[in-house]
Design a protein that fits this description.
Chain A: It holds the Pfam family BPD_transp_1. Chain A: The chain crosses the membrane at residues 14-34, 70-91, 103-126, 146-172, 208-230, 250-273. The complex is a heterodimer. By secondary structure, chain A is mostly helical. Chain A has a single domain, classed as Orthogonal Bundle (MetI-like fold), CATH 1.10.3720.10. Chain A has helices at residues 6-12, 15-36, 53-58, 61-94, 97-112, 115-125, 132-138, 152-177, 180-188, 193-204, 206-221, 225-230, 238-248, 252-276, and strands at 39-40, 46-47. A two-stranded antiparallel sheet of chain A has the order 1-2. Chain B has two domains: 1-42; 55-256, Orthogonal Bundle (MetI-like fold), CATH 1.10.3720.10. Chain B is globular and about 70 Å long. Chain B starts with a helix and ends in a 5-residue tail after the last helix. The relative contact order of chain B is 0.13. The chains are: A mainly alpha, B mainly alpha. Chains A and B meet through helix 2, helix 4, helix 5, helix 6 and helix 8 of A and helix 1, helix 3, helix 4, helix 5 and helix 6 of B.
């Protein structure tokens, strides 16, 4: 923290951080790009070069279908989690500061819980002996208990559960900064609470809704464990395939090519967020 | 409306808390097999975390990695956030943007990048690998919280200090640090909790040598039901709640999360 050293001193303070960010963020990205274009050597290893072979392998229906499935699943999850989280976030901002803080603590705690643990608890919940199925039998909706996972519905349910706390926190800044006079004015003019919710609150916070949706989309694209634990191989997303190629097939070039595809999907979607603007801060 | 609101809030709470309640109930199960409602009551699966050597070793790995990477993350973030705020350096702002980026992208991309980096230089499987990887991946958290804290420093106080002849370091220590410290702590705590729970980067950097708890849990999941996982989930949730309560206690949680003050 150099106060009087002039510009040189100010820049020197940044050297350690620059080295860390340069070596451990920029270099890994360059390595992914280089590896995705690498050529195969005679020993079966890979070497620097320029080949589109790995991207050609992606461009088959099997992998394109995986990419479309991932994008469709994540879009659906973004939509569902916003539908569930929006009314709650709105009500949350109307609570007193103490209740608000308590809810925020819990939501942060659940949001930080490892995806592994969320997958585990839904595995229990949807298993033959644990929970939901027993309740269905008990209320008479099912004759005998059955396992609900692995299935597409199980993947969807657990990923929405994972996304809801994030949605609350993403919507929270915009809704809590919304001018409360607006809703009061609409109420004074005779609108019912529900009506003012739909005609005032939602339009005013629309940029935040869109940018939160897109952020949730990118976030769920990164989910890795839920599709493996609660889904069948046909429910695996791009992230799972990348892990599978890198860790279990030792195919770094193809894993890198898939990562580049995932990067392009996420980056274009994040670019769309910045175009829409929106009320996101953190 | 009040009825509708209550009904909705009740359903939301059930949805959010339901899985947690089930996993808590299961963690007190006296039997080895999965049963809900639980059969019997026992603390044996909580004792197991500390008694079973392999689970305890993973717990210690996770704690050490989380502590070191959160500290390193704050150390990297501090000068960047400070220079961007104090001097408005364009270079610092660019670094800031680079520092936030890893957290926004799907983590598997960073994980693969780290794997390629470490294998290409031939340093594999050391704990320091995952510590650095987590510090970079979670850098966005201290960066954002520290700059939020710095924004609330009154610049006229700095000028007053300088006019009175205080050096840059004295101004930093006596004016800026006391205000920014709780926010730096918040950044540290966020990074600590997320590192503790992180799976894919830990797997790809050191998964086969230093087993962290999330990695060990996932490996155990493949071999069917293991009751210890339920008690670990409850412990982790309690740790998370404690850490975020501390943040709420020592700095302004709604403000950190973007509400107006």
């Amino acid at each position: 923290m150099n106060g009087q050293g002039g510009t040189l001193g100010r820049v020197l303070d940044l050297v350690p951080s620059s080295v860390m960010i340069g070596v451990f963020f920029v270099v890994p990205f360059v390595l992914i790009l280089l590896t995705s274009f690498s050529v195969e050597t005679e020993t079966g290893d890979y070497a620097l070069g320029f080949s589109l072979a790995h991207f050609e392998r992606f461009a088959t229906w099997f992998y394109i279908e995986r990419a479309l499935f991932s994008a469709g699943l994540c879009a659906l999850i973004a939509l569902l989690s916003l539908l569930i989280a929006f009314p709650f976030t709105y009500l949350l901002t109307r609570f007193g500061p103490r209740t608000q803080t308590l809810w925020l603590i819990y939501i942060l705690a659940q949001l930080s819980l490892s995806e592994v643990l969320i997958a585990f608890s839904w595995q229990i919940l949807l298993s033959r002996t644990g929970g939901v199925a027993n309740i269905l039998v008990w209320v008479g909706l099912a004759e005998k208990s059955f396992a609900m996972a692995p299935s597409a519905g199980a993947v969807l349910a657990a990923l929405v559960y994972l996304a809801v706390p994030f949605s609350v926190l993403l919507l929270y800044p915009a809704i809590s900064r919304m001018d409360k006079a607006l809703t009061e004015a609409s109420r004074t003019l005779g609108a019912s609470p529900l009506r003012s919710f739909f005609t005032v609150v939602i339009p005013v916070t629309r940029p935040a809704i869109i940018s939160s949706g897109v952020t949730i989309f990118v976030l769920t694209l990164g989910a890795i464990i839920v599709p493996q634990v609660l889904g069948k191989p046909e429910h695996w997303t791009l992230s799972v395939l990348i892990t599978d190629q890198a860790i279990f097939n030792f195919n770094m070039p193809f894993a890198s090519a898939l990562a580049v595809v995932l990067l392009i999907i996420s980056a274009s979607v994040i670019f769309a967020v910045s175009k829409f603007g929106g009320g996101r801060r953190t | 409306m009040t009825l509708l609101r209550r009904l909705y809030l009740a359903l939301f709470a059930i949805y959010l808390l339901g899985p947690i309640v089930v996993i808590t109930a299961v963690s007190f199960n006296a039997k080895r097999f999965l049963a809900f409602p639980p059969r019997g009551f026992s603390f044996r699966w909580y004792a197991e975390i500390f008694v079973a050597n392999d689970w305890f070793a993973s717990l210690m790995n996770s704690l050490i990695i989380a502590l070191c990477s959160a500290s390193l993350s704050v150390l990297i973030a501090m000068p960047v956030a400070y220079s961007a705020w104090r001097f408005g350096l364009r270079y610092a702002k660019a670094l800031f943007a680079f520092g936030v980026a890893p957290f926004i992208l799907p983590p598997v991309i960073m994980a693969l990048g780290f794997l390629l980096l470490y294998t290409s230089v031939g340093i594999n499987g050391l704990m320091i690998n995952v510590i650095i990887a987590h510090a970079i991946f979670l850098l966005a958290l201290p960066l954002v919280t520290i700059s939020l804290g710095l924004e609330s420093v009154d610049r006229s106080l700095i000028e007053a200090g300088q006019t009175m002849g205080a050096s840059g370091w004295v101004v930093f220590r006596t004016v800026i640090l006391p205000i920014a410290a709780p926010f730096a702590f918040a950044g540290f705590a966020f990074a600590f909790v997320l590192s503790l729970n992180e799976y894919i980067i830990a797997l790809m950097t050191v998964g086969f040598t230093v087993e962290t708890l999330p990695v060990k849990i996932f490996n155990a999941l493949r071999y069917g039901y293991t009751p210890v996982i339920a008690s670990i989930a409850v412990v982790f949730l309690l740790v998370n709640i404690t850490v975020f309560s501390l943040i709420a206690r020592f700095s302004n949680l709604p403000r950190i999360l973007g509400a107006q003050d």
